[in-house]
Predict the structure.
Amino acid sequence: MNKFLSVWLMVFLIGWNSFSAHSQEQDDERKRRLDVLRYGIETQVIELITTFGTEKNKDYEAELLHVFDSATSPKLRSIILDYYGSLRLDTAVSRAAGIIRVRDETSDSLVGSAFSYLLSLKSDAAVEQARRIIEDDERKYLTAAIKILGATGKNDDVEILRVLYESASLDAGTKQEILLAFGKMRAADSFELLASIASAEDAGKIERMYACTALGDLGDARAVPVLIGASVVTDPNIRASALGALQNFDENAADNAILQGLRDQHVIPRLAAIKAVEKRQLKAAIPFLEFRIKSDPERSIKDASIEVLASIGGEGGMDFLSTFIEDTKSPLAHRASAFVAILTHGSSEDFERPMVVLKAAAADKDKAVFTALARSAMASSAPQATSVARFLLSNDDHLIRLGAVAWAERNKAVELLPELKSIAESDPVESLRKRVVTTIERIGRP
């Protein structure tokens, strides 16, 4: 039997044995996890539930409900609600609403988790209790109740919140939450109040910022001139909030204000305008973004402009970024940003010129450019990074090959199996050959 067939047979046998062993491992692990949920000490159970959240694992959803019902620990019950909320599972809605109903007999932390859980689902199960909390001025839960009405309340609730907002004893933070709630409710009745605050020069900075955000969420076209006015006030934070809100309006006047925001003297509004351009996908912003990339003094603005220009795409924008990558006078860090931006957003044709730069840099004696571009690509999970990984697998430096192997394993790149099997057969570095066999096995796992 020739050497090539031997390697293929070895890989097949390893994969088959691994599959059988993996199946048994899965059964054993499931039993272990169930035992922890049923009999483990609290810290072990909490650690496991945290792991479920990280894994986005819903396999134990029903079992966790049994744990919730039998647990006496508020901390453990809170962790379970947090888990359900993180995965948007409505499993415990009635239980969370019940906790809020008996809040006077329940720990504050558990009540808080119940509110947060229902908010994550935008559930109206606690709306009546939220209204009662506001009517009874239960300060401890006032913010949570306001958020519930903002997420699920009806038009009639606008008046409840307006009266609360005008209360002389209400603190600034709670007032700001009310403003945000108005926007989320998308109730036209709140427009006049929000517009008056956003325009008032004597209003607090934070209140004006929140009012601008709420007007954006409200989506009422009457807000556009108000927000344009706020986009040129003295405070840069208010300007940024107004520009962020304008991205929600499909109007020429709003788009023009966003474009002008790209020229703001302060970095915060410029960054807000760039994000608004991305949301609106404004092709008219392309020359502005190109200028920002070439001339903006702030690195964060340059990188954000590169990303947004690539996301808008178009032949002109991609040509500009490719030329920027090719220009050795461009800062290396930004060349790497542009490289990965085209990798992420561009077509295979768009990526041809950046790939030429990478290959030329690989042949250079000075490896700084090659290393920067390769690292940026291997940090991306974009499908097109496969072509970069394939090129790097043939590099003379075994550490570069190792980095590409790690990318293939992390992204389960089945397309690279021929190259990986070749490395497993003939790479001069024994440790890399062994690593690649493991990588092939892991890529083959379901």
Summary: The longest helix spans residues 3-39. The CA atoms of residues 273 and 334 lie 20 Å apart.
